Amino acid sequence: MTEKRLDYNVVTNGRSKEWAVFFHGIGGNHRIFYKQIDMFKQHYNLLFIDLPGHGNSPALPSNQGVLPATTAMVLELLDDLKIESAHFIGISLGTIVMQHIAIHYPNRVASMVLAGAVNRWLKWGELLGRLVLSRWLRNILPYMLPYIVFAYLLMPNNNHKQSRDIFIREAYKLGKQSYHHWAFVLLYSYKTYDQLIKSSNAIPKLYISGEEDHMFIKGITSYVKAEKNAELHLIETCGHVCNIEKHMEFNHQALQFIQRNKRPIGRVS
Predict the structure, then answer these.
(1) What is the DSSP string of 112-153?
(2) What is the pLDDT of residues 217-237, one digit of tens each?
(3) What are the residue boundaries of the structural domains of the chain, listed by start?
(4) pTM of the entire structure?
(5) Which of 146, 191, 229, 230 lies at 20 to 30 Å from 139 by C-alpha?
């Protein structure tokens, strides 16, 4: 058992034995899924998790690998809540955490909805990321400066403003050490996706991306073609954080997909 488990919020509907578990993006917390609650709770019990270093969750020890340690903490929470398996829904960084769990513990994942998924960056974005995360530069720059720059690079349009503002506002609570831990996970996210393709699991996966998610859309399209049981839905006039920007279309597509992949899973404690 860890000294302090991840912070979370549960919404139960009193009827279903099925669970949907939500994973937010970097700098955020479980509240970014506020536009999903009303529709999803009609069908499922909902678990919203704050990843390590986010919200009120404890930061990761500096001597542990970020994804293995996070996976252990997530599974500990699921065990505590007696959730055997669930539908996983994530945005951005959250999709990488989900993929890591799916690779190593596929029996815990009934299906996956991956919104604004991050895998291989455009080359210039990757080079810029390596520069700002270089040891000498990250010790000089305030951690929020490159974060804000990347927020505008990822979500540059006027219709991205609401998502961009939330993205920046919530990140101020993250802290420098946790930011750097997770920034490296994002930068090298393709390594997790490469492992997933080599793994033998065939968990049903729905990728939902905005057509204006220019940094990642090319990579996502390529990976979906290479993965087993994966499909892609593109949302017009939409950027990276599609669960906020076009929440009605996101909710409809995600729920329809999960309904197609229902099986007896989980239980309410």
Answers:
(1) EEEET---SPPHHHHHHHHHHTSHHHHTTS-THHHHHHHHHH
(2) 988 998 888 888 899 999 999
(3) 8-260
(4) 0.87
(5) 191
